[in-house]
Design goal:
4-stranded mixed beta sheet; 4-stranded antiparallel beta sheet; single chain; globular; 223 residues; alpha+beta; 2 domains; Ribosomal Protein L22, Chain A
Length: 223
């Protein structure tokens, strides 16, 4: 089973942010400190909080080291059975986890004047044809379905953007043989790439993150 947890982070204020920041890893704190916009800082520290939430659900709270693979994919050497993927966009932050590799991406759905040019550069021919065949009123959403699927697939592989997005096709229902699962949140398109048909999505209030440290006061993710 793959679990996806989504949080609407827009209600998080300065006080709640400081609580998330205080429980975040030094590396994540340093990244947040470099960000000018408050919303970006919230999204940054929410990532650590979501990983802590996943560990708590699995019943293994503690202090865990974070590391990254060759192409920057994060993993927990102390919890090798937890495969996870993070994503955030706009008001949403999300994590997917399970016992096998997963890739998750979400994007805020909004008019994008560069969508057609981007599709020509980054989409495979089959994807461009799939996008062009969409009725006018559905084309924008179809673009985001393709875009999130491509991002989710390279996260699943662990290659990130070191692999050309135009080198493979994610025309539904799968990405090069790996199942794709789409979900819609208010104003947002989410796609999971994972070899599992049992996918469960939960939308939780932001308080689930900001109170997590109170329940497990020594629980953090280190370097």
């Amino acid at each position: 089973m793959i679990q996806i947890v989504c949080i609407d982070i827009s209600p998080i204020d300065e006080t709640e942010y400081r609580r998330l920041y205080g429980a975040a890893s030094p590396r994540r704190q340093a990244r947040a400190d470099r960000m000018r916009l408050f919303a970006d800082r919230v999204r940054c520290v929410a990532g650590d909080a979501l990983i802590r939430y996943a560990l708590c659900v699995r019943g293994i709270p503690g202090c865990y080291r974070m590391d990254t693979g060759t192409h920057g994919k994060p993993f927990l050497p102390d919890a090798p059975d937890l495969c996870f993927s993070l994503s955030h966009s706009g008001r949403w932050a999300a994590i997917a986890w399970g016992n096998r590799p997963v890739g998750l991406d979400l994007e805020t759905v909004a008019p994008r004047p560069t969508a057609e040019a981007l599709a020509r550069r980054r989409f495979a021919p089959a994807e461009q044809a799939y996008l062009a065949a969409a009725p006018e009123g559905e084309r924008l959403l179809r673009f985001y379905r393709l875009w999130t699927a491509k991002e989710a697939y390279v996260k699943y592989l662990g290659t990130g953007l070191t692999r050309s997005l135009a080198s493979f096709s994610v025309v539904p229902p799968d990405a090069a043989g790996v199942p794709l699962h789409w979900r819609m949140l208010p104003g947002c398109c989410l796609c999971l790439c994972a070899p599992d048909d049992d996918v469960r999505l939960s939308v939780l209030p932001a308080a689930q993150l900001t109170t997590l440290h109170d329940k497990f006061p020594g629980f953090r993710i280190g370097e």
